[in-house]
Amino acid sequence: MTTTAPQTPAIFPAWFAARQHDAWERYLATPTPKRGDEPWRFSNIKQLDFAGFSRSAGVSPAADLIARSTGLEKTTAKFVFSNDELIHSESRLPEGVICLPLAEALVSHGDLVAEHFMKQETRLGSAKFAAWHEASVSNGLFIHTGDNVEIEGAIEVHHWISGSNTVIFPHTLVVTGKSSKVRVVEIFRSADDITPGLAIAFNDLSAGPNSHLDYVAIQALNEVTRIIQINETSTARDASAKGFILNAGASWARNESLSRLEGSGSRSDMLSVSIPAREQEYDQRTFQHHVSEGAYSDLLYKNSLYDDSKTIFSGLIFVGESAHHTDAYQTCRNLLMSDTCEANSLPGLEINADQVKCSHGSTSSQIHDEEIFYLRARGIDPVRARQLIARGFSVEAIARLNDEPTEELLLKFLDEKFAHIATGGA
Predict the structure, then answer these.
(1) Within 13 Å of residue 239, how many CA atoms lie on the same side as its CB?
(2) Residue 93 main-chain phi, psi, to 5 deg
(3) Which residue ranges make up each domain of the chain?
(4) Which H helix or E strand runs over 186?
(5) pTM of the model
(6) Tens digit of each residue's pLDDT, the chain (426 residues)
C-alpha cells in the first residue's frame, strides 16, 4: 500500500486541495480490511495488497489507444483517457450542458463540482480505498445537464490502463437537472493482455427531480489487473436512475453500489451481468437505501461462473422510518457452468416503516441435461449449446436498459468473453 502523499495540482481550487489533504489523513488512519470484517465476508483479502502500484505517464501511443476505443456506433460525446490523462474528446451536446474532464471542471466550475463531489458516506467496506481515491483523483468526467434537457444518444468514456503496475483513479460525476435525461457508457480496458494494473474508480450520480439518468459500466480489463469501483447514486422526487455493470475482465473486481432514494416517487434499477472464468473473482456489495416514502427499487444481478471462478454478492434493502409504501426487490441468480466454481449470495432486508412491499432472493443452479439435449438434437455442439444458454440467461438484465444500441454493445463484449472462454483464453 502506498505511503507517499499525492500532490494536488496548483491550479485546482483550495477547497479541493483541502479535501485531498483530509482524505489522505483519513486513508492513513483507516485500517486495511481484515478477513473477519463482515463487509469482506468470503472475500480474498490477499487481493488488497497493492504494494508496488504507482501512477505512470502514458506508455502506449495515444493514437493506438484512440483507434482501439471503439464502442457505440453513434455517440453524443466521446472521451478517451489513458492513465487518467485525456487523449481524445469530441462532443455534439446541446448548448448549456456542461461536459468536461474533471480536471478542467475543477478550474472552470469549481463551486458546482464542490456541491456534488463525494457527498455520500462510503459504507459497504471500502472506506479506506474511497479515501485513497479522494486523495489521489486528478481527472475523470463531469457532466451537468441543467434543467429540461434531454440528451439523445449516449456520452461514451474510455479509461485505459497502460504500463506495468500502474494505478488510475477515474472519477465520474453526473448531475441531471429537473426533467432532464442522460445516458453515460463507461468502458475500462488495459492497453495489453499481460501487464498488471489497478483501478480505484468512483462514481457520483445525482438524478434531479423528474429526471432520467442511465449509467453503464463495462469492465473488460486484462486478467492480471484489479479494480475497485464504488458507485453512489441519489434520486430526487420522481427521478429515475438506472445503473448497469458488466464484469468480463480483471483478475479481481470489487463493485460497491449504493442507491439512495431521497424523493417520493423516485425509482432505482440496479443491474449487473458477470461472466467470471478460470480463477477470476467478482465481489459485489449493494445497498438500496429508501429514505422517502413511495419509492421503488429493483436489483437484478446475474452471474455465469466457469472453471474455478468465484462470485460474492451481498445486498441489503434498507427501509428508513419515514419510507412508508416502499416497493423494493432484490434478486441474485447464479448459473454454475462447472463443478469447481463458487457462488456466495447474502441478500438481506431491514424494514423500519409500515405498508411496504419488499422481497429478496438468490438462486444457484447448473444447466439441466434436458436443455443441452434439446439443443444437441438440433445440431448444436455441447460447448456452443452451453454458451447459448448462458447468453440467454444474461439477456434478461441487459434488456432492462431498453436501449438497443447499448444492449448491442453489451452483447458484443459478452460474446467476446464467451469466445475467449471457448478457446481457453487463447
Answers:
(1) 31
(2) -80, 155
(3) 14-367
(4) strand 181-190
(5) 0.96
(6) 556 788 888 899 999 999 999 999 999 999 999 989 999 999 999 999 999 999 986 678 999 999 999 999 999 999 999 999 999 999 999 988 999 999 999 999 999 999 999 998 899 999 999 999 999 999 999 999 999 999 999 999 999 999 999 999 999 999 999 999 999 999 999 999 999 999 999 999 999 999 999 999 999 999 999 999 999 999 999 999 999 999 999 999 999 999 999 999 999 999 999 999 999 999 999 999 999 999 999 999 999 999 999 999 999 999 999 999 999 999 999 999 999 999 999 999 999 999 999 999 999 999 888 888 888 888 888 888 888 899 999 999 999 999 999 999 999 999 999 999 988 765
- Burial class for 59, CB neighbours closer than 10 Å (0-12, 13-18, 19+): middle
Work out the number of other CB atoms within 10 angstroms of the CB of residue 58: 18
- Dihedral of CA atoms 113, 115, 121, 126 in degrees, nearest 10, equals 10
378: which residues sit within 8 A by CB, 6+ positions away?
none
Rounded CA separation 251/277 (Å): 9
